[in-house]
From TrEMBL:
It comes from Acidiferrimicrobium australe. Keywords: Membrane, Transmembrane, Transmembrane helix. The chain crosses the membrane at residues 38-60, 80-100, 121-146, 166-190, 197-218, 249-270. The keyword Lyase does not apply. The keyword Transmembrane helix applies. PANTHER family: INTEGRAL MEMBRANE PROTEIN-RELATED, MEMBRANE PROTEIN. This is ABC transporter permease. Signal peptide: none annotated. Pfam families: ABC2_membrane_4.
């Protein structure tokens, strides 16, 4: 009986970890295949465009009735008021892209495939930025255009040919993107959707209300420099510049700096804490 010679041993091949392009593809696949992504974005569109239609129609009626005077009428800002509700949907999406992985335990598989924590965070933030910015701009332009239509005849309207108006509409999408990234950073820090949303609610809503208890002279400065309050100037400040608020891009810069700090903290925690 002839003995079969054993197959020659193969040297172990080095494990190939995912590069940045691979990480981007993986994050894109996770983003578009999750049902929660489409539900959240759908809610954002309904709240933004649908809300703008209702608010604009009600505001136009109030204008015709004389409840709003010509000096207080800002048509571009009226049609973008619904973005106050859209930001909550984008914040939820920003949290879910990472807290969902921690909740399901899939974060271990993700980090095994992309062991470089900075690359993993960068890929996730990049995909989220692209998705939220594109959808945010669609919502912003849709809200503005439909809002102007809902004003009807006899009510002053705004046009995108005006530089301040165009900046406000584009800035709305930028603001929504920044809020989503901010909540993603918080999600990395606290690893739970509820906790991340509780913090963002405090930053956007609770703390500005609490600030009302401090002296007026301090309140103006706090409102001027508080990151989320300052960031809103990029889409809400469409009238003459006021001395007690930052300019549109300066205010948005404050928000972006705050987002960068939170993401830097998220990167440090991701590197130093076990999954």
């Amino acid at each position: 009986m002839t003995a079969v010679a054993p197959a020659p041993a193969r040297p172990d091949r080095p494990v190939r970890h995912a590069g940045l392009v691979d990480a981007l593809r993986a994050e894109w696949a996770k983003m578009v295949t999750l049902r929660s992504t489409w539900i959240t974005l759908g809610v954002a569109v309904v709240l933004g465009v649908g809300g703008s239609a209702g608010i604009s129609a009600a505001a136009a009626h109030a204008y015709r009735q004389g409840h709003i005077g010509p000096r207080g009428w800002q048509p571009a800002q009226v049609s973008l008021v619904s973005l106050f509700f859209v930001q909550w949907a984008m914040a939820v999406l920003g949290a879910l892209v990472i807290t969902g992985e921690y909740g399901s335990g899939m974060i271990r598989n993700s980090l095994a495939a992309v062991p470089r924590r900075g690359r993993f965070l960068a890929a996730k933030a990049t995909v989220l930025t692209v998705v939220v910015f594109v959808v945010g701009e669609v919502i912003a332009f849709g809200s503005f255009l439909l809002g102007q239509v809902m004003f009807g005849s006899g009510v002053p309207q705004a046009t995108l040919s005006n530089g301040a108006t165009l900046r406000a509409v584009i800035g709305a999408g930028l603001y929504l993107t920044a809020i989503a990234l901010l909540t993603t950073g918080l999600g990395f820090l606290v690893r739970a959707t509820a906790a991340a949303m509780a913090i963002i609610v405090g930053l956007l809503f609770i703390f500005p209300i609490i600030f009302g208890a401090i002296p007026v002279s301090w309140l103006k400065q706090v409102n001027k420099w508080w990151p989320t309050q300052a960031g809103q100037q990029v889409y809400s400040q469409v009238g003459p510049h006021a001395s007690d608020v930052l300019g549109p891009w300066a205010g948005f810069g404050i928000l972006c700096a705050f987002v960068a700090i939170v993401l830097a903290a998220a990167y440090w925690v991701l590197r130093t804490r076990n999954a």
